[in-house]
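Course assignment 3, question 2. Fill in each field.
Student: A.L.
Task: Predict the tertiary structure for the chain below.
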Amino acid sequence: MTYRHLAAAVFAAAALMAAGPADAAVATVDMRVLFTDNAEWQAAARAAGERRAQLEREFDQKSEGLTGEALAALLQEYRDKARAAERDELTASYNKVLAVIAEVAREEGYDTVVRARSVLYGAADGDITAAVKARL
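Answer field:
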C-alpha cells in the first residue's frame, strides 16, 4: 500500500468516526414474520413451486435415455430455468416488502434498518416489524 493510499484510508476512517454511529437511528425488522403471514408472498411461493414441479416433469420426460454430458447439460438448463422461474415469481413481492420497510423507516425517522436476526451485539433504536406488517 502506498503512502497516498494509506493517507486516504486514514482520512476516510476519521471522517466515518466523526459522523459516528451514534448519530444514526437504527431499526430492526423480522423478515421471517413479514413473509410468513404475507398472502401475496405465499401465493408467489406456491406459483414458484408449481412452476418448479412442471419443470421437473419436463426434465424427466426429456432426460429419458440421456447419459453423460447430454444429461448434465439438460440438468443445468432446467436448474437455470427453475431459478429464473422462482426469481420471476418472488421478486415483485420481495421488492414490495422492501419498499414498505423503507417507507416506514423514513416516516419513523430511521436511517438504517437491519434484519432482527442479524444483530449480534448492541441495541437498535426500535423494531418496525409490526408497522411494516400492518401496511402489507
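Instructor remarks: The helical segments are 3-19, 31-36, 39-63, 68-108, 129-135. The longest helix spans residues 68-108.
Grade: pending
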